[in-house]
Design brief:
The chain has about 250 residues and is mainly beta. The protein has helices at about 215-225, 235-245; strands at about 1-5, 15-20, 25, 30, 35-45, 50, 55-60, 65-80, 85, 100, 110, 120-125, 135-140, 145, 150, 155-160, 165, 170, 175-180, 190, 195-200, 210.
């Protein structure tokens, strides 16, 4: 395991898990929610072989299928607490489990106002109560996003492919990672060849735009709090889509 970030209080972490051919793990569960994304190789989950692009989320205390690795495999793993695996059957039900081959999902235009055209996403998981989301983010080559912004939520990204230069941070290339707390000023953005990254946010994502790239967290926080609770644009657009479908 390469640990990318860790919360020392809650035990939650994000990391790269390398599993060699021949690795086996029986059924079991974690006391926290956990998710993984297959970056390379294949892994057998129960009766199904999963390859690059497969995503799975399992809520706390719900049983995870047995694993068997037939070729070297690398997973991006995220947990919401301490990742102590317990063999056996968990007490939870599988109603909240998400399992999807992301290659089969269509790219959708972004639903959060602000970015120029050319930015797309595949939403893998959305918590309607908190606004938290896990999604793949991609952009076209020569994508230019000449704005500086901050958010009310934390933002996390693991670069899977392509390039993205962030003016306040530097170049993101395959294998690059960041975890950014709320109200941190960042941008502008430019991608020469296009890119794809797996991203997480822990609440509604709103783009607050500023002119000064050195604007402080305290200034941004005070401004955002004065504006009131952030809107969940993604939830609103989902609800609008549902109404149109019914109609």
């Amino acid at each position: 395991m390469k640990v990318l970030s860790r919360d020392d209080e809650q035990g939650s972490l994000s990391g790269l898990l390398s599993l060699p051919a021949g690795y086996r793990r029986g059924k079991g569960f974690l006391a926290c929610g956990s998710e993984f994304f297959v970056l390379s190789g294949t892994i057998r989950c129960g009766d199904n072989v999963r390859g690059a692009g497969y995503y799975e989320y399992t809520p706390a205390n719900e049983t995870q299928e047995a694993w068997a690795v037939e070729e070297d495999c690398e997973l991006l793993v995220l947990t919401s607490g301490t990742a102590d695996f317990e063999p056996g059957v968990g007490e939870g039900e599988l109603s909240g489990r998400v399992a999807v081959d992301t290659v089969r999902l269509p790219w959708m235009r972004g639903r959060v106002p602000g970015p120029p055209p050319g930015l797309f996403s595949k939403v893998l998981r959305h918590d309607e109560q908190t606004g938290a989301r896990v999604f793949l983010c991609g952009c076209v080559p020569r994508y230019d996003y000449p704005l500086i912004e901050y958010h009310d939520c934390h933002e996390e990204a693991y670069q899977i492919a392509g390039d993205m230069r962030i003016g306040t941070s530097g170049l993101m290339s395959p294998g690059s990672y960041f975890w950014r707390p709320p109200y941190v000023t960042h941008g502008p953005f430019y991608s020469r060849g296009g890119m794809m990254a797996l991203m997480t946010v822990d609440g509604p994502l709103v783009n607050h735009y500023v002119d000064d790239p050195s604007r402080t967290v305290d200034d941004n926080r005070a401004e955002a709090l004065a504006e009131g609770p952030p809107r969940d644009y993604f939830a609103e657009s989902k609800a609008a889509d549902a109404v149109r479908t019914i109609a």
